[in-house]
Design brief:
Blueprint: H1 8-22, H2 26-43, H3 54-58, H4 78-88, E1 101-103, E2 112-113, E3 116-122, E4 125-128
Antiparallel strand pairs: 1-4, 2-3, 3-4
Helix pairs in contact: 1-2, 1-4, 2-4
Length: 142
């Protein structure tokens, strides 16, 4: 059962985002990017208030570097569509399980990002999750 609403068009859009943001991190890295996106839609806190749809999340200004670069506009492949469906259906992986932020620094992961603690790294991406006090919704079960 889906944890966020997503039409086939939404799945395709999310799949394109996964590919553009984390293709080099493999399927697990792409799933983690999807986790962050779904978490942002569910959280309704911090910089992510009012994001209710996949397009709202993907096209939120300054949220994903890939949407401003040409490589976002590559078509989604079936592999990425399957990954997008998995995250929409609630599959979560650590360290992205509750994360609202990730980025790829040139070196070590800073201990905080947007005042949120670093929770882990996967390959080149650092993940940050809010505290329960600042964003309870991201910790709610499905």
């Amino acid at each position: 059962m889906a944890v966020v609403k997503a039409s086939n068009t939404d799945i395709d859009l999310l799949a394109r985002l996964l590919r553009a943001e984390a293709e080099g991190e493999g399927q697990q890295g792409m799933l983690m990017v999807g986790n962050v996106g779904v978490n942002r839609m569910r959280a309704n806190c911090s910089d992510f208030k009012g994001l209710r749809t996949v397009p709202d999340m993907v096209y939120q200004p300054h949220a994903f570097e890939a949407t401003t670069k040409g490589y976002f506009y590559q078509r989604a492949r079936e592999t990425e569509r399957r990954l997008a469906r998995r995250v929409v259906n609630g599959e979560r992986l650590w360290p992205s399980k509750f994360s609202l932020w990730y980025f790829r620094p040139p070196g070590d992961c800073p201990p905080t990002w947007y005042n949120q603690p670093h929770v882990g790294r996967f390959k080149l991406h650092c993940f940050y999750e809010p505290t329960a006090e600042t964003c309870q919704n991201v910790y709610n079960t499905f």
